[in-house]
Amino acid sequence: MTQERNYTPNTGGDRSIHLVGHVGRVVGCCRDLLGGCVRALAGSGGHCCGQPEGSVMGCTGGSVIALAGNPNTGKSTIFNALTGSHQHVGNWPGKTVEQKAGILKHDGQEIVVVDLPGTYSLSACSLEEQIARDFIVKAHPRVVVNVLDSTNLERNLYLTAQILEIGVPMIIVLNMRDLAEARGITIDIHRLAQQLYNTPVISVAASREQGLAELKQTIATFMTPQPQVACRLDLVA
Amino acid sequence: MSTTHMSVPTSPSSIRYDHALEAEITRLSTAITQVSELRSMYRPRWLAIQLLEGDEQLLAEVQSLPAAEAVLRTLDASSAHLRELFGEDVDVLLTDQRYSFVNSLARDVLTHPAERRRTLSEKIDRVVTNRVLSIPIFLALMWIVFKVTTDVVSPFVDWIDGVITGPFTNWVVALVGVVGLSGTWFESLLVDGVIAGVGGVLVFVPVLMSLYLALAILEDSGYMARAAFVMDRLMHTLGLHGKSFLPMIVGFGCTVPAIYATRTLDNEKDRILTGLLVPFMSCSARLPVYILLAAIFFPEHAGLVIFGLYLLGIVTAVLLGFLLKHTLFKSQTHVPFIMELPPYRVPTLKAIWKQMWERTASFVQKAWTVIMVASVVLWFLMAIPLRGSGTFANTELDNSAFAMVSRSIAPVFAPLGFGNWEATGSLVTGFVAKEVIISTTAQIYAMDAAAVETEAATFAGELAAIATSFVDATVETLKAIPLIIGINLFPEEAEAEPSSLMIAMRDNFAASSGGHGALAALAFMVFVLLYTPCMVATAAARHEFGNKWMWVSIVGQLVLAWVAALVVFQGGLLLGLG
After folding, report:
1. Tell me: the pLDDT tens digits for B156-201?
2. Do A93 and B113 touch (CB under 8 A)?
3. Three-state helix/strand/coil letters over chain A
4. Where do the structural domains in chain A lie, given as residue ranges?
5. pLDDT, mean of residues B451-475
6. Would B86 be classed as within a structural domain?
7. Which of A158, B407, B512, B537 makes an SS bond possible with B421, Cβ 3.0 to 4.6 Å?
8. Is A235 in CB contact (< 8 Å) with chain B?
9. Together in a domain, B281 and B167
10. Are B187 and B176 in contact (CB under 8 A)?
């Protein structure tokens, strides 16, 4: 039956299998898991996390969250605001070609934030889509923070629908609320949350540092102590 | 109890598809749930949808599991059934229904203003991306950038130069005297090696700051994305992908991030091809070389010459790309260029300042490390006598180890008009980094002249002089701004005296080219434009494309640079120029 479909395994297959192996081997530690994920997803060289290897600072028990969204929706701005790092932010789609990891400190907790490349979908057509999807599906972030451009809601929601299908916990961030307001666009946040099966929806203006405190609070609610996902996986497998 | 994902809410948080589709999704996900390897890794419903959509990566994974045979059988049955029902590909169907979910959701929660006004961005775009006006606007903006980086900041360049060669050098000499090492080789190492080398590069900090400032404004305002869009038409007619233009624009700043930026391209062949072409975008480290040489040989038309070099780089990349695309890099698939144009935004001062500062700082860091090491090594090579009667640190430069090595390579460049060992030596060190060309040149001529003008000056007097000359430089810069658009409000009083370095270089190029110094200098600049950017860039190319392509890139660039410089010099001679 495989001959019928006439498929050719693409290079991505390699990458993901490598990662699966990695997850399976790691027991009781997530430092290696994240390092492994970032490295494995980046390709062969292990050069990718935007930081020198090994500096994916000692993460505590699977407290990993991911930032996902369309290009140029302000993910990097939010990433900088959350982690206090100084990644270059540009008015330029495709700035983040690889994941960058940083640490969010909240109430004495250390949460690893991974900034995924901006994509319109998760169909694994391009390298960026593949990186983003593999991370969400296989690294099991505690929550995916999906950043949307409020002035372009409909187009941005396609990615949201796909993340929803993956079944990973999600927070919706409606960024650039100031621009949307200026254009007279209003979004019914409660209705949106309800329609998306009670996914938390937060409206922010990251460039003006509005709504970020609420975002941090919401992220923290997903960090309630629970058995480590990665380790659990190992037991199940 | 579900043993799948503990972290996943059990509620059916997903899009509901059409009944027939849902039935097959359920059937397939039930089959998936039977396979523990899959169940532990994925949400079965999601995996089922992906498989129905024809995801090759996941299919390969499922096929590699012996236990998943039933899943594959179910998949084939479901796909066949759906195809029979709907008569079209299942993936289109799923995408379609996902879109209609999104569409109704958006309609549910969104309220648009009754009448949609045309946004300012759209109005600007009607002009900027206009079929007729777009390219002239692009060229005009680039022209302004080059005028700013050459004419407008030059007073500051002179100011830093004055501070480093004047008061700063005097202070170091005085300090060395205090320690009692006056007149020793140590003093020479500090003054002729470190200060001449590093200082020679630091002089260009204002140039780079202005370039980074311009790039930051163009990027953050959203214009750069338009530039890529505008150029895409041109790129496409040449058979290149529009997305290739993004790394190329980045390449004007630095080749290294530009090579990494090729990852935005989907196709492997396009990626490598773009990676091969990116180094021809003249990076900011090459600019000081052009500025110095243009000031010596083309003082009247410095801006035009430099602009021409940038254009030559672009044209070379485009032509070479066209050639390679139709030979080595033939590919059947044509990926359309889709890029979202971000809205125009007024760049925030903070963001621009940060970007300008960070990039300049990383350049200065390099100047302190790579160039310091290179300068010291170079000083030693220049201090070691290989012939003649000189002793260490007290030899005719002409007899030094450095001169001997460079002289043995120099004949290669003789047909290009710059077969003197000084120019050759700077090109050799320029392989490490382009900034080093200037520092090498500064060192060579500093050693040669070795005339330190010692004026009796007080420390306080020199500090005051630094401050007043800074004010003068600021005034000069402000005066130069109208020059960008060709208006000279302040007629020149007198041409600035060329420095001793400039005179020495002018004589040198004239001598090696049989009296055609300007033509030789032009050939030299063309060579600098086209040959290997720097060690770091080659390392990046190796990283991204592998050893083979790194060597193709290095050899190709050297050959191309040599041939192009030859054409410039010999062609110029034939035409009776220079």
Report:
1. 878 888 888 788 888 888 888 888 887 788 888 888 778 877 777 7
2. no
3. CHHHHCCCCCHHHHHHHHHHHHHHHCCCCCHHHHHHHHHHHHCCCCCCCCCCCCCCCCCCCCCEEEEEECCCCCHHHHHHHHHCCCCCCCCCCCCCCCCEEEEEEECCEEEEEEECCCCCCCCCCCHHHHHHHHHHHHCCCCEEEEEEEHHHHHHHHHHHHHHHHHCCCEEEEEECHHHHHHCCCEECHHHHHHHCCCCCEEECEHHHCECHHHHHHHHHHCCCCCCCHHHHHHHHC
4. 11-236
5. 72
6. yes
7. B407
8. no
9. yes
10. yes
Has residue B78 got a pLDDT over 80?
Answer: yes
Cα–Cα distance list, B94 to B52, B161, B563 (Å): 9, 66, 56
Question: For B123-167, what is each residue's pLDDT tens digit?
Answer: 888 888 877 888 888 888 877 876 777 677 778 878 888 888 788
Architecture of domain A11-236: 3-Layer(aba) Sandwich (3.40)
Residue range(s) defining the domain that contains residue B461: 149-334+362-484+519-574
In a domain, B172, yes or no: yes
Is the ipTM here above 0.90?
no
Q: Over the stretch A13-53, which tens digit does the pLDDT of each residue have?
A: 222 222 222 222 222 222 233 333 333 333 222 332 333 33
Indicate which CATH number applies to the domain containing B77.
1.10.287.1770
**Nearest-CB residue to B46 (from A123, A166, A226):** A166
Task: Please tell me whether residues B216 and B71 are part of one structural domain.
Answer: no
Contact B60 A164 (CB under 8 A): no
CB distance A164–B13 less than 8 Å? yes
Q: How many residues in total does chain B contain?
A: 578
**Any CB–CB contact under 8 A between B72 and chain A?**
yes
